[in-house]
Design brief:
binds cobalamin, binds iron/sulfur cluster
C-alpha cells in the first residue's frame, strides 16, 4: 500500500536521527517572500564586506525552485557540534565548529545516505544536497521548517538545545507533509550577544561582516586594514555571541567521532601556531575547516591575536 505524506515525512525524520542528525523539519520549497527585502538591504549596506559571492545569484538565493529545478520540498537538518572538551581560554581560540573534521565532508555523506534511503524505501526522488555550499538562506529555511528562531546574534537557536548546530538541506522533487514554521522569538529584551561582541558587529538583529571576527579571521583575504589592532584572541572564527547566549546553557556535547579534535590540538599555544611550517599546516589541517583560511591566513591571524 502506498505511504501517506505524513508516513513518508515520519520515516525520513526517523532515518535522519538514526544517521546522527539532531533535528529535522520539512517545508514546501519556494520563495522567501518578505525576506527578499532584508537580504537586499543587508547587501546594499555593504554588510557582506568582500564576500562578493554573497551578492551573486540573488534570485536563486531567494527562491529554491530557481536553484533546484522541480523542487517541491526542503528538508532541513541540524547537526550538533558542541564539544565536550574545549581549549583553555588563554590560548588562541579556534571556533568549536572547527575542532575536528570538515563538516562539509561529514554531513554531505549523511545527506547522500538519506537521499538514497528515500529513493530506495520511500519513493524515487531527484534533488540536491547542500551544507553551507549553495546560495540558500539556511537559517531562514530552518525557521520555516519549524526548527527554531533566529536570535539577535543571527544564529538559528533550537529551543532547549541552543545554537551550536550546523544546518544542511535536501531539496527534493517530491511532496511531503510539512511542519509549521517557527514564529516565536525567545530573545525577549536580552542583548547579551550584542553587548559581548568585542567589535560591535551586531546591532538591531543585523551583522556587519566588516567588523565580525569570524569574517576577518576566516573569509577576509589579504592583509587587514590598519585600524584592525587586535583579533581579541580569536585565531579562527569566533563563538563569543553564542557562548554568552543563555539558550546555550542547554547545549549538550555532540556524539560525532569525526568532530573530535586530535590529541594535542586543544593545547596549541601561539608559539606552536607560529612555528608551523606550510607542510605541517597542510598535513594537520587537510581535512579540517581551517584549511579555508590557508597557511598564510593563519600566520596573518597569529600576528594580530592579542
Ligand atoms: C555568509 C555567512 C557568514 C558571514 C556573514 C554572517 C551573517 N550573519 O550573514 C560570516 C563570515 C561573518 C559568518 C560567520 C559565522 N557563521 Co556563517 N554563514 C554564512 C552563510 C554562508 C550565508 C549567510 C547569509 O546568507 N547571510 C546573509 C544574511 C542576510 O542572511 P542571514 O544571516 O541568514 O539572515 C537571515 C535571517 O537572519 C533573517 N533575519 C535577519 N534579521 C532578522 C530579524 C528578525 C526579527 C527576523 C525574524 C529574522 C531576521 O533574515 C535573513 C534573511 O532570511 C551561511 C550558510 C548559508 N548558506 O546560509 C553560514 C552560516 C549562517 N554560518 C554559520 C556559522 C556556524 C557561523 C559562525 C558561528 C562561525 C564561527 N564560529 O566563526 C559565525 C557566526 C556569526 C554570526 N553571529 O552570524 C552557520 C549557522 C548555524 C546556525 N545555528 O545558525 C551557517 C548556517 C552555516 C551552516 N550550514 O551551518 N557566516
Ligand atoms: S562572531 Fe564574534 S565578532 Fe562576529 S558578531 Fe559574533 S561576537 Fe561579534
Ligand atoms: S544572547 Fe540573548 S539576545 Fe542574543 S541571541 Fe541569545 S537570547 Fe537572543
Amino acid at each position: 500500500m502506498a505511504l501517506s505524506l505524513s508516513e513518508k515525512s515520519a520515516l525520513i525524520k526517523q532515518e535522519a536521527l538514526r544517521l546522527g542528525f539532531d533535528c529535522c523539519g520539512i517545508a514546501p520549497a519556494g520563495d522567501v517572500g518578505e525576506e527578499h527585502e532584508r537580504v537586499s538591504q543587508w547587501l546594499t549596506e555593504g554588510n557582506h564586506a568582500e564576500m562578493g559571492y554573497m551578492a551573486n545569484h540573488f534570485d536563486k538565493r531567494c527562491n529554491l525552485t530557481l536553484l533546484v529545478e522541480g523542487a517541491k520540498s526542503v528538508i532541513v537538518f541540524a547537526h550538533n557540534y558542541f564539544p565536550q572538551e574545549k581549549q583553555p581560554p588563554h590560548l588562541p581560540q579556534v571556533s568549536y565548529y572547527a575542532y575536528g573534521k570538515d563538516y562539509h565532508e561529514v554531513i554531505k555523506q549523511k545527506l547522500f545516505a538519506l537521499m538514497e534511503f528515500i529513493h530506495r524505501d520511500i519513493e524515487p526522488v531527484e534533488g540536491r544536497a547542500f551544507v553551507d555550499s549553495a546560495p540558500v538562506l539556511e537559517r531562514y529555511w530552518a525557521k520555516r521548517a519549524g526548527l527554531g528562531w533566529i536570535g539577535k546574534n543571527n544564529l538559528l537557536i533550537i529551543p532547549g538545545k541552543g545554537s551550536f548546530f550546523f544546518l544542511s538541506e535536501l531539496i527534493l522533487n517530491i511532496e511531503l507533509a510539512y511542519d509549521e514554521p517557527y514564529t516565536e522569538s525567545h530573545c525577549g529584551k536580552c542583548t547579551r550577544c550584542a553587548n559581548a561582541c568585542p567589535t560591535g558587529a551586531l546591532s538591531k538583529h543585523k551583522l556587519d561582516a566588516r567588523k565580525c571576527l569570524s569574517y576577518l579571521t576566516i573569509e577576509k583575504k589579504g592583509e587587514f586594514s590598519p585600524e584592525i589592532e587586535t583579533l581579541h584572541n580569536r585565531l579562527y572564527g569566533c563563538d563569543i555571541c553564542q557562548q554568552v547566549c543563555p539558550w546555550n546553557r542547554f547545549a549538550q556535547p555532540h556524539q560525532t567521532p569525526e568532530f573530535l579534535p586530535s590529541s594535542d590540538f586543544l593545547q596549541y599555544d601561539l608559539a606552536k601556531w607560529q612555528s608551523l611550517t606550510e607542510e605541517d599546516f597542510r598535513q594537520h589541517f587537510r581535512h579540517s575547516p581551517i584549511k579555508r583560511t590557508g597557511f598564510v591566513g593563519i600566520q596573518r591571524n597569529a600576528g594580530k591575536i592579542l
